[in-house]
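A reminder from the course coordinator: this example appears on the midterm review sheet, so study it carefully.

Given structure:
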């Protein structure tokens, strides 16, 4: 079996008004999240972010549009431990953001997600099932206030 690498990205997609895109997991209905995904061999974190955003939402953006927050969260793998090598218990998730001009239409990957919505950032944070996603969404106002906060 080709096991997943325990390194991933979390990409918070938002508008200038801080409306945040959330997507609902197909295999876990009721769990809402930002775009997430595991790094593939040979990829950089930025390449992973761009690929996952396109695969999960259909949004195409240049690498220069992604903002690396230089924040990484370690968390216990609970939803899909069988996809990682035996003995792998934790994943390291790197946070990025992507600002889109407006609430764009999204094309979901049906095997991964079943619905999407755009919510004001505080409401979006309350819907996120993971603490790391919630915390990242709550950081958006400070992260987008000025270039020095990036």
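Designed residues:
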């Amino acid at each position: 079996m080709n096991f997943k690498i325990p390194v991933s990205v979390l990409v918070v997609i938002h508008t200038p008004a801080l409306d945040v895109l959330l997507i609902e997991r197909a295999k876990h209905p009721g769990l809402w999240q930002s775009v997430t995904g595991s790094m593939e061999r040979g990829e950089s974190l930025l390449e992973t972010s761009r690929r996952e955003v396109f695969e999960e939402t259909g949004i195409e953006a240049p690498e220069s549009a992604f903002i690396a927050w230089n924040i990484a969260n370690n968390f216990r793998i609970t939803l899909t431990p069988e996809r990682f090598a035996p003995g792998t218990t934790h994943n390291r998730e790197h946070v990025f953001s992507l600002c889109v001009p407006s609430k764009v239409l999204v094309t979901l990957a049906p095997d991964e997600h079943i619905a999407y919505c755009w919510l004001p950032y505080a409401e979006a944070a309350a819907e996120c099932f993971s603490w790391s996603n919630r915390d990242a969404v709550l950081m958006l106002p400070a992260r987008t206030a000025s270039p020095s906060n990036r």
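The domain at 7-149 is CATH 3.90.79.10 (Nucleoside Triphosphate Pyrophosphohydrolase). Helices lie at 45-57, 121-127, 131-144.
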